Amino acid sequence: MINLLIIGCTLIVIRAKNPVHSLFSLILVFLNTAILLIQSGIEYIGIFIIIVYIGAIAILFLFVIMMLNMKLLLHQAQKQGGLNFENTLRYLPMLFFITLLFYQFLHWQKAEGDFQYFFDNPLAFLNYFDLISQSEQSIVVIGKVLYTHQFFYFLLCGIVLLLGMYGAIILTFSPVKSIHLQNIYQQNSRLLNNNKFHYEPFSS
């Protein structure tokens, strides 16, 4: 039931013309995902999703939506006809390609193609959970997996996020083309040729 709610809210996020409706549907997706994780025994990740995504990012999205021109966005959405089913199908090959790359990444050491290797692959951390005692808490298990077995990929994700932040700063940075400098001596000089403010004498 929760899986169906997550899928339905995700479709509403994609197909909704009003950004406010998309935001509320996105909050429901995060909330249902957190409930599903808590029911699965992963309490830390579920509470983390509620605090970070619903409590921080959703409010940030809400402030961004408040600054948008809703009438203009709705007019453009009605003019373009929204996101129909044909436009949604365009993203399926990209999703298939990304899934195929991820599958090949998990099997990059394998020359044959037997299915049993997926469970013997050191990159798949299902075996790491088997090595850790089941009596430990989820936060301990996550800490051992991230900082012990998968520390390289954890650092790689940090570098990718740093590059994304650096790229956003570079794209939004606009250098000042002209800088007006002030010379107090030249402005206050009594000499006419040295002064910036040249006034032509009145002709009598």
TrEMBL record:
GO MF entry, a single one: oxidoreductase activity
Short name of one Pfam family: Oxidored_q3
Q: Could you tell me the superkingdom of the organism this chain comes from?
A: Eukaryota
The primary location reported for this protein is mitochondrion
State its Enzyme Commission number(s): 7.1.1.2
Entry's localization field: Mitochondrion membrane
Any one annotated GO CC term = mitochondrial membrane
Topological relation to the membrane, as annotated: Multi-pass membrane protein
Catalytic activity, reaction form: a ubiquinone + NADH + 5 H(+)(in) = a ubiquinol + NAD(+) + 4 H(+)(out)
User: Which InterPro entries does the record cross-reference, listed alphabetically?
Assistant: NADH_UbQ/plastoQ_OxRdtase_su6, Nuo/plastoQ_OxRdtase_6_NuoJ
Keywords from UniProt, A to Z, are:
Electron transport, Membrane, Mitochondrion, NAD, Oxidoreductase, Respiratory chain, Translocase, Transmembrane, Transmembrane helix, Transport, Ubiquinone
TM ranges: 20-38, 44-68, 89-106, 151-173
Q: Which family does it belong to?
A: Belongs to the complex I subunit 6 family.
Q: What does this protein do?
A: Core subunit of the mitochondrial membrane respiratory chain NADH dehydrogenase (Complex I) which catalyzes electron transfer from NADH through the respiratory chain, using ubiquinone as an electron acceptor. Essential for the catalytic activity and assembly of complex I.
Know the name of this protein? NADH-ubiquinone oxidoreductase chain 6
Gene name of the record = nad6
